[in-house]
Design brief:
Elements (H helix, E strand, L loop, with lengths): L4 H7 L5 H4 L17 H12 L16 H14 L3 E5 L2 H12 L5 E4 L5 H9 L5 E4 L5 H4 L4 E7 L11 H8 L4 E4 L4 H4 L9 E5 L13 E5 L1 H14 L5 H10 L3 H21 L3 E5 L22 E6 L2 H11 L4 E2 L9 E3 L11 H6 L6 E5 L5 H13 L5
Parallel strand pairs: 2-3, 2-4, 4-5, 5-6, 10-11
Antiparallel strand pairs: 1-7, 6-7, 8-9, 9-12, 11-12
Helix pairs in contact: 4-11, 5-10, 13-15
């Protein structure tokens, strides 16, 4: 098969369809599977409980589902990974990584900013690992033999700050590095090729792309894959097969969607920079975020997320969300339609106020996820919404 990404996105995970005699991937909704040969069933059960990617019999849907496994094979190919493990959400995926890492040390090192719920989970330490938040530049002095995992997100949610993955990997040494690459997708960023151990996506976002499923995925090596499947099995975090089907259905258009939205985001970011009702724009394509020089090396493009500060503070930001007519005022991102939301009041509300202030997640900040609509229609909508702030 061709190694070109756009071709893989269409055909990955579908190698068995000719044998099955179908064109579209089937959906297996079974919760349980017949076991006529007890010895074979017992062997299959043992294999799955010990983290095997597949067995002769799925036994029970919490252990394994063929539709989910097919989508996992596709996602592994797109990330250039040996394996991928799907979960019921991005947070379930992160939780599984933390649980799987517990035997490797007593603490996690994490680089802020992060998605609000990720930050909250790590801050609480509910899963048995202390988290020490450090700047990427201080990683070399912070890391120790007791560090179980390094967690970072690049570009970061919500202000698009970038972290040099290769540099963090170099100082981490043997400590596994998890990169949340949700904003970039495998279209624009390949963390495993830069030395990362684990790549995480909220597959709810760009990978699914249509706002109709919740899923999380970890791309990794077989050892991590087995450990993550063990965690998934005992915690019940398996993705529902219908969501896996929808997720795989979205993959063939992934590159098209990402490239189209990115082109529009560049135009919109440049125009927002010039707008009188915008005081600051955070966008890698403008060079206005930390480590924006990584665009073109670590990332092949700046992506389609933009953050910007609205003149007039919280009330003005709220007015923009109230006034948009084309863009949807809602959390999430990476959908075919444009979404706009207020991080401090919504996705990052659970983050400590001092942390939000340090990382510029203020009351005037809005995050825009650019969709695939015509860029002029998006701009017309944003313009009228920003002008409405003059009336606050």
């Amino acid at each position: 098969m061709s190694s070109h990404f756009d071709t893989l996105a269409v055909h990955a995970g579908r190698q068995d369809l000719i044998r099955l005699g179908v064109h579209a991937p089937p959906i297996d909704l079974s919760t349980t599977y017949p076991v006529r040969d007890l010895d074979a069933g017992t062997a299959a059960f043992d294999a799955l409980v010990n983290g095997a990617a597949e067995a002769s019999n799925p036994i029970y849907a919490r252990l394994h589902n063929p539709t989910v496994a097919r989508c996992e094979r596709a996602l592994a190919e797109l990330e250039g990974a040996e394996e991928a493990v799907l979960f019921a959400s991005g947070m379930a995926a992160l939780s599984a990584c933390l649980l799987a890492a517990r035997g490797q040390g007593d603490h996690v090192l994490a680089v802020r900013p992060l998605y609000g719920s990720s930050d909250h989970l790590l801050e609480l330490g509910l899963l048995g690992l202390e988290t020490r938040f450090v700047e990427a530049a201080d990683m070399a002095t912070a890391i120790s033999k007791d560090t179980a995992l390094v967690v970072l997100e690049t570009p970061a949610n919500p202000t698009l700050e970038m972290v040099d993955i290769r540099a963090v990997v170099a100082v981490a040494g043997k400590v596994p590095v998890l990169v949340d690459s949700t904003f970039a997708t495998p279209v624009l960023q390949r963390p495993l090729e830069l030395g990362a151990t684990l790549v995480m996506h909220s597959a709810t976002k760009f990978l699914g792309g249509h706002g109709d499923l919740i899923a999380g995925v970890i791309a990794c090596n077989p050892q991590w894959g087995a450990n993550l499947r063990k965690v998934r099995m005992v915690t019940g975090g398996l993705l529902h097969p219908l969501a896996a089907y929808l997720l795989q259905r979205g993959l063939p258009t992934l590159s098209l969607r990402v490239q189209r939205a990115q082109a529009s985001a560049q135009v919109l970011a440049e125009r927002l920079m010039q707008h009188a009702r915008v005081s600051k724009v955070y966008y890698p394509g403008l060079g206005t975020v930390r480590n924006a020089h990584l665009v073109g090396t670590q990332m092949s493009g700046p992506g389609s997320l933009i953050a910007f500060d609205v003149v007039g503070g919280h009330d003005a930001a709220a007015m923009v969300m109230k006034s948009v007519q084309l863009a949807l005022p809602a959390v999430s991102l990476g959908s075919v339609d444009t979404l706009i939301q207020h991080p401090a009041g919504l996705t990052h509300r659970v983050v400590d106020e001092k942390v939000k202030a340090r990382y510029h997640i203020g009351p005037d900040l809005l995050r825009l996820s650019v969709g695939i609509e015509d860029v002029e229609d998006i701009w017309t909508d944003l313009s009228q919404a920003l002008e409405a702030t003059t009336k606050t």
